[in-house]
């Protein structure tokens, strides 16, 4: 297990940002951390990085306990940070430095030798497409360029775990596509990626595991396919009857919308495929076709949020 | 610790506020020395080396401490909150650096930046002394060094006070505004009132009595103001011997070391409050949410 969070509680005054959060990220996963604004995504990440102080709970990174009983173990935290790359949300880098100087000074924080810093900086700036502007001050960069540099700084130490907080904010469509490719490539190299977003399409495309956080609690966690399968039962069913017959759905608890004389749309909170056949038969009719619409991650997410 | 130090030195020496203050100081020094020289020429007074040194001390403690104090308070008051606002602190603290080491490095860097500002003004003042007709001596160099160290201590106290503001007030603009208000109200208006009271209470006595009461009041009521404490200390750097304003300005030069020894209570006020402010500022930083 690369990251394990147990019962994490964080209050900002009267507001409970994390309400006993439990979360596990395994080595090699691309974990999509989904949630609406204010759900607690950034608070979780800030706690994992030791940047804020939760009131309760336990955090483990790379098998070492970094937080418990309201306190960080600074030695373990520093040791863990050597293996982490972190890209914060809404951050800028030092305006007076160039990308080369930025990566150099960040490499220095990891005590990388000068030659290694130079080699790695060049490699990363080429990878993110900022090599041409390597000597330009960051203060003159566009938002997209800053985001790219933020990603590069998070990779300088060749991290085992990459923590990205809303990383695609501010990127144009081509930047987003490149970004996704970079994450896929990094994952192929064996890196674990923990990636928060409220843009579901991004998560659906590149993550193999998803956790949905709502009001400071993980409401759903697991393999993307498994989640979709579990949610199938919450899907919508469209049935067409063999003959024109008015079916009375009263008392079933299902949400039914007639779409024509023979066509009905039914939405339920559990799997009713078999039950639906029996019910229609009990009213002297027969289902000709039944369509089950598989939910998108967006529908699952909205269901969770609601 | 050195990582935070290096980053902060680069950051401070490249910011506009540092250079604006340095340039303002330089611009104000030149005419002040010019007017001093004109005054001596017009009055026909001869400037002895001791008098020149006394002038140097008073110009550094007067003008420099004012400008460097503003710089110190501004640097301190925006040290943490502005970095949180920009997000650079989250980047820095996501690296394998302990919080205490980071703030320690920052503090050393701020001290160095203030020292650079002080040394700059000292060089300008020394040039001014040469212009006024004084000359370099070993004692002058030693005393300039001691004076700079004394001023640096006082300025560090203001930086440390700024750290507290910076960790308590989230908005750097609000902290900056409050720092300036503090600067003018607590460090300028209140000392003026205290001095006025000392003068009022010694209206019918001689100059010596008045200075004694001023010192007493400053030590007692302005213990939190490092600039006033430095001024009290530097008052004893020299003693004016000329009784008649028409005669040659005669000054007995006692030196900075003597002045410090003679005003240990004032020196202690600078030290203990600096330590206290630093402790509170560092503690707040180590325990605060960086969001």
The Cα radius of gyration of chain B reads 21 Å
Remind me, CATH topology of the largest domain in chain A?
Answer: Rossmann fold
In DSSP terms (H or I, runs of 4 or more residues), the helix count of chain B works out at 12
Mean pLDDT of chain A: 88
- Element order, helices and strands of chain A? EEEHEEEHEHHHEHEHEEHEEEHEH
Can you count the beta strands of chain A?
A: 15
User: Percent range for helical residues of chain A?
Assistant: 25-40%
Describe what is shown at a glance.
Chain A is 34% helix and 29% strand. Chain A has 306 residues and is of the alpha/beta class. The radius of gyration of chain A is 24 Å and the shape is elongated.
Characterize the structure shown.
The complex is a heterodimer of chains A (306) and B (291). Chain A is of the alpha/beta class. Chain A folds into two domains: 3-229, P-loop containing nucleotide triphosphate hydrolases (Rossmann fold); 233-305, Alpha-Beta Plaits (2-Layer Sandwich), CATH 3.30.70. Chain A contains ten helices and 15 strands. Chain A has helices at residues 41-48, 74-81, 99-109, 114-127, 143-155, 173-188, 200-206, 224-232, 273-282, 297-305; strands spanning 3-12, 15-25, 30-34, 56-61, 64-68, 71-72, 84-87, 161-165, 192-197, 209-214, 217-223, 236-241, 255-258, 263-267, 287-293. Chain B is mostly helical and 291 residues long. Chain B is built from twelve helices and two strands, in the order ααααααααααββαα. A two-stranded antiparallel ribbon of chain B has the order 1-2. The interface between A and B is medium-sized, with 29 and 24 residues.
List the helices and strands and how they pair.
The complex is a heterodimer of chains A (306) and B (291).
Chain A: E1 3-12, E2 15-25, E3 30-34, H1 41-48, E4 56-61, E5 64-68, E6 71-72, H2 74-81, E7 84-87, H3 99-109, H4 114-127, H5 143-155, E8 161-165, H6 173-188, E9 192-197, H7 200-206, E10 209-214, E11 217-223, H8 224-232, E12 236-241, E13 255-258, E14 263-267, H9 273-282, E15 287-293, H10 297-305
Parallel strand pairs in A: 3-9, 3-10, 7-8, 8-9
Antiparallel strand pairs in A: 1-2, 1-4, 4-5, 5-6, 10-11, 12-14, 12-15, 13-14
Chain B: H1 2-13, H2 16-43, H3 49-77, H4 81-86, H5 88-93, H6 99-132, H7 138-168, H8 172-201, H9 207-221, H10 226-235, E1 238-240, E2 251-253, H11 256-262, H12 264-287
Antiparallel strand pairs in B: 1-2
């Amino acid at each position: 297990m690369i990251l394990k969070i147990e019962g994490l509680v964080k209050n900002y005054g009267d507001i409970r940002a994390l309400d006993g959060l439990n979360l596990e990220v395994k080595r090699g996963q691309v974990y999509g951390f989904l949630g609406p604004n204010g759900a607690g995504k950034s608070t979780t990440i800030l706690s994992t990085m030791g940047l804020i102080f939760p009131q309760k709970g336990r955090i483990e990174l790379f098998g070492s306990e970094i937080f418990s009983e309201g306190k960080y173990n600074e030695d373990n935290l520093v040791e863990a940070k050597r293996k982490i790359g972190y890209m914060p949300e809404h951050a800028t880098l030092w305006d007076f430095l160039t990308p080369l100087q930025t990566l150099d000074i960040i490499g220095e924080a990891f005590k990388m030798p000068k030659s290694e810093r130079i080699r790695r900086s060049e490699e990363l700036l080429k990878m993110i497409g900022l090599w041409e502007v390597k000597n330009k001050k960051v203060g003159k960069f566009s938002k997209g360029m800053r985001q790219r540099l933020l990603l590069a700084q998070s990779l300088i130490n060749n991290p085992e775990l990459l923590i990205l907080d809303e990383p695609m904010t501010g990127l144009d469509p081509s930047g987003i596509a490149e970004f996704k490719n970079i994450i896929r490539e990094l994952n192929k190299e064996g890196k674990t990626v923990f990636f928060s977003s409220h843009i579901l399409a991004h998560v659906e495309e590149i993550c193999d595991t998803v956790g949905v956080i709502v009001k400071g609690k993980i409401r759903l966690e697991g393999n993307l396919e498994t989640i979709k399968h579990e949610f199938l039962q919450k899907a919508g069913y469209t049935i067409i009857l063999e003959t024109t017959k008015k079916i009375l759905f009263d008392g079933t608890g299902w949400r039914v919308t007639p779409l024509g004389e023979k066509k009905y749309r039914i939405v339920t909170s559990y799997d009713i495929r078999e039950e639906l056949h029996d019910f229609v038969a009990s009213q002297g009719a027969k289902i000709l076709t039944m369509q089950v619409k598989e939910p998108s991650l967006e529908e699952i997410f909205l269901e969770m949020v609601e | 610790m050195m990582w935070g130090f290096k980053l902060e030195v680069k950051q401070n020496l490249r910011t506009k506020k540092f250079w604006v203050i340095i340039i303002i100081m330089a611009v104000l020094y030149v005419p002040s020395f010019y007017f001093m020289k004109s005054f001596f020429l017009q009055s026909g007074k001869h400037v002895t080396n001791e008098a020149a040194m006394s002038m140097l001390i008073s110009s550094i403690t007067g003008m420099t401490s004012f400008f460097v104090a503003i710089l110190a308070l501004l640097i301190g008051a925006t040290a943490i909150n502005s970095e949180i606002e920009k997000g650079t602190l989250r980047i820095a603290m996501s690296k394998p650096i302990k919080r205490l080491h980071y703030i320690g490095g920052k503090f050393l860097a701020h001290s160095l930046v203030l020292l650079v500002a002080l040394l700059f003004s000292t060089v300008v003042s020394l040039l001014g002394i040469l212009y006024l007709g004084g000359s370099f001596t070993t004692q002058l160099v030693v005393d300039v060094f001691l004076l700079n160290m004394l001023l640096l201590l006082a300025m560090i106290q203001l930086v440390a006070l700024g750290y507290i503001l910076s960790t308590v007030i989230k908005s750097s603009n609000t902290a900056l505004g409050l720092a300036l208000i503090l600067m003018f109200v607590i460090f300028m208006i209140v000392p003026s009132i205290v001095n006025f009271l000392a003068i009022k209470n010694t209206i019918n006595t001689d100059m010596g009595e008045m200075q004694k009461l001023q010192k007493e009041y400053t030590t007692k009521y302005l213990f939190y103001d490092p600039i006033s404490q430095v001024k009290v200390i530097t008052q004893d750097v020299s003693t004016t011997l000329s009784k008649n304003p028409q005669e040659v300005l005669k000054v007995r030069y006692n030196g900075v070391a003597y002045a410090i020894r003679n005003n240990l209570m004032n020196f202690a006020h600078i030290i203990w409050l600096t330590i206290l402010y630093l402790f509170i500022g560092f503690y707040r930083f180590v325990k605060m949410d960086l969001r």
